[in-house]
Amino acid sequence: MFQTKFRITNLNCEACVKVSKMELGDVPGVKDVSIDLKTGIVNLEAEREIAWSEIESVLKSVEKTAEKIN
After folding, report:
1. Edge to edge, what strands does the sheet with 30-35 contain?
2. Integer Cα distance of 46 and 26 in angstroms
3. Distance CA 62, CA 24 (A)
4. Using one digit for the tens of pLDDT, what is the confidence trace for 5-47?
5. How far apart (Å, rounded) are the C-alpha atoms in residues 36 and 46?
6. Is 47 exposed, middle or buried (0-12, 13-18, 19+ CB in 10 A)?
């Protein structure tokens, strides 16, 4: 399994979390997504390595932005 951790920078409410989680969960290979509303931290678990450009594209489709964290 591959794990990716990043921050969504413009989460405002539970609906934002829900739609972001749903869209990220639809990416082929993604098995689990957890998002903390307070911090914006996303933990994404997948069968394959998910390209950063793919993450950005999916989030852009729901008007969200993200930043990499270490």
Report:
1. 30-35, 41-46, 2-8, 66-68
2. 11
3. 10
4. 999 999 999 999 999 999 999 999 999 999 999 999 999 999 9
5. 18
6. exposed
Integer Cα distance of 37 and 14 in angstroms: 7
The distance between the two most distant Cα atoms of the chain, rounded to a whole number of Å, is 30
Provide the residue count of the chain: 70
Exposure string for 1-20, b = 16+ CB within 10 A, e = fewer: eeebebbbeebeeeebbeeb
Vertex 50, ends 48 and 55: CA angle to 5°?
A: 155
User: Is pLDDT at 70 greater than 80 in this prediction?
Assistant: no
